[in-house]
Amino acid sequence: MAICFCCLVIFGTLLDAATALNEPGIRLRLSERGLSYAATLAVDALARKVRDTTIPDQSGNVKTSVGKVDYELSGITIKRFSFSSSSVSVNPGVGLTWMLRDLEVAIQGNWRYNYKRGFIRIRDHGTFDGSVAQSAIDVSVTLGMDAAPGAGRPTIRSVGCDCRLGAIAIQLGGGASWLYNAFVGQLEGNIRRALQDAVCRRIRRAVDEDAGSSLSSLQVVVPVADDDLRLDLGLVEPPRFQPGSVEFPLKGQFVHGDDVTLGYPSTADPFQLVDSDQMVTIGISEYTLKTAGYVLFHRGLFRHNLTSADLSSTSERNFLSTSGTGLCFGRLVPAVGRRYPNATVELEMTATGPPDALISAKGVRIRASVSTTFRARPSDGSLFYLLAADVSATAGMTVTLGESALRGNLTGFVPAIVVTDSGVGSVDDSALQTVMKLAARLFVAPRLNEALQKGVAWSSFGKFRPANHRLETQSQFLQIHTDVIYEPGAE
To answer: Tag placement on the chain: N or C end, fewer CB within 10 Å?
Structure first.
């Protein structure tokens, strides 16, 4: 239904874990301008709902100059329903009002009358057309949240409909319509009231039943990068109606497949969107990024055994050699070069916990802790333990906003390394720090950036495409501002 469309087609795509969240991970705000734009496009959908609505038969009698006439109007049907102006206003703390102006309505039906005076009896019938112009309708709705455990879907309910129709111009045809035309003006008020009631009943049914049914099946856990990584966009509380906008507080948790029960070590911190005059504003908190890292960590994706086979060129593979040139492992850690000449070194890297994300006005930084075991593999294929170290690394992440996806790129990898065990004697931490910088530059960063450049879809608006979009980094969250443009031929 159109009211649902106004609020949610933009949210579209883009809307409980075992323990409810105190704060949303994502906030989505629709401005009155955005709501009104969607409502304008929804005019045809609403008109189709109202067209062919039938009005209860009208019957009774009226007094005329020639006596009392019994009448019956039947088969009254709305044939045209259109309006040239549509807008939405937000009633803070209450809901939305959809205002339809310059309404034009056309109806058709059948008339029949029975006139009897003395021995004179006249019966006749025919058809009639009616038209209404310069009318207005206000439809009030409120949005809530499905109370079922784990649902998080929005609900919609009509709370009022005020239909104000102008005078109905009625023209009869067939039979002795001249007689009917003489008193039809007396019936205009009854027809108008019945028409107003019928229009409001149909609109409210469209809100309560049609839109309500659509929202009850809304998918709130949506795939992001693959079939297993999904984003839970269920509501954590009912939408908030604020002056000039409606805001949806969304869970913003990444989950593994359909499992939304994974326990997270923290909850989202409070954050407030910065005001914007654009149609849609989306805030993505540090918490949402952290849950992505948490899920990927528990899927075992942050571990890798780095070997020379992972590097594409001889010059890149040199740093893992014990007998190479320049910055090779054997020169950086001489004890290894002497003990295992003409060997290659392998780095078994395993994250000790989920990576952390920090967002500030200056940008995004990622922190990770990795346990690394170094081994030497001589040319005969045997494997020898060298040493173990704990690595704490930070990196900047440049976030860019494309038309369809939010992408990242890691830069400025800075490792801090502490040797925790050694089978080759004393090892200089700074030498291993150089090794880890090379490993990050030649393998870790390129591999992660390949995934980050695939991005996360943020603009699944169906037949809408984002326009004038921009990205800002705020304290503890990313903020996207965008308008939308309707493209009927888009998929």
So the answer is: C
CA–CA separation, 332 vs 443, rounded Å? 19
Query: What pLDDT is stored for residue 13 in this prediction?
Result: 33
End-to-end CA distance of the chain: 19
Does residue 405 contact residue 382 with C-beta atoms inside 8 Å?
Answer: no
CB of 89 closer than 8 Å to CB of 81 = no
Answer whether 35's CB lies under 8 Å from 72's CB: no
- SS3 string, 179-237, reads HHHHHHHHHHHHHHHHHHHHHHHHHHHHHHHHHHHHHHCCCCEEECCCCCEEEECCECC
Predicted confidence (pLDDT) per residue in 162-213, tens digit: 999 998 888 877 665 566 666 667 778 888 999 999 999 999 998 898 888 8
Of 140, 88, 476, 100, nearest in space to 246 by CA: 88
Phi, psi of 275 (to 5 degrees): -60, 145
| Residue that has been written with the tokens 């000039």 in this structure | 244
Q: Are 157 and 207 in contact (CB under 8 A)?
A: yes
d(CA 454, CA 210) in angstroms, rounded, equals 37
The CA dihedral of 70, 73, 74, 78, to the nearest 10 degrees, is -170
Q: pTM for this structure?
A: 0.85
Q: At 445, is the secondary structure helix, strand, or coil? A: helix
